[in-house]
Amino acid sequence: VYSYQNNPPELVRKDLIDYHDCSDFNQNGFDYLMGRHGFLGELSKCLEFKYDPEGNIFIPFKYKGDVIYYQKRFLRCGKNLRYDMPRLPKGKKPPYIIEVGDKKKLIICEGVYDSMSLLIQAPGWTPVAICGSQITDYQIQFLREYVPNEIKIYMDKTELSNGIMRKLKKVIDYCPISVVWSDGTDPEENLKKRLTWAKSIADLQWIY
Length: 208
Hints:
The protein has 208 residues and is an alpha/beta fold. The chain has helices at 10-21, 27-36, 40-46, 112-121, 137-145, 158-171, 187-195, and strands at 50-51, 57-63, 66-78, 81-84, 96-97, 105-109, 126-129, 150-153, 177-179.
């Protein structure tokens, strides 16, 4: 895997300095997260979100404990601009990996908020957001570094999950790879639906 820690592109190096200069809390940013769903309050602290003075949210991408990249989510956004990410060479965007557990059971999804919802819905799994509808060869290198025992894929459209599964099976042939069927909603949307009727945390945990 290309080492951002040892040789980050200059633009990313500068932007990571900007990330570290941000504050650990902003009430407006925190309120926005809680408005998405109630779990994001504590998760944002555990996952070390940062905020600029306007309340925009900086979500750090980590690899083996080190911050290597980030996504900036705009608190007030237009129709076409919800987030921004530092520019990188084509095909070199890393996945967003929430490194929990032994990192041997990986569950792939599209967005960063989807991955956070899977911490609730898929206990024992390590969420991996590919930040798009297709996985890149570069992102697959990250997955292989963990030498997973099992991989699941949960996109908002099952056909997208099937396409990713087919690509992964060409290069990862030593563990089961399967798809979580979707009714057209993404993982975060599914969590929100379950929150409307769930009576306990057990009602939210359904991917094993």
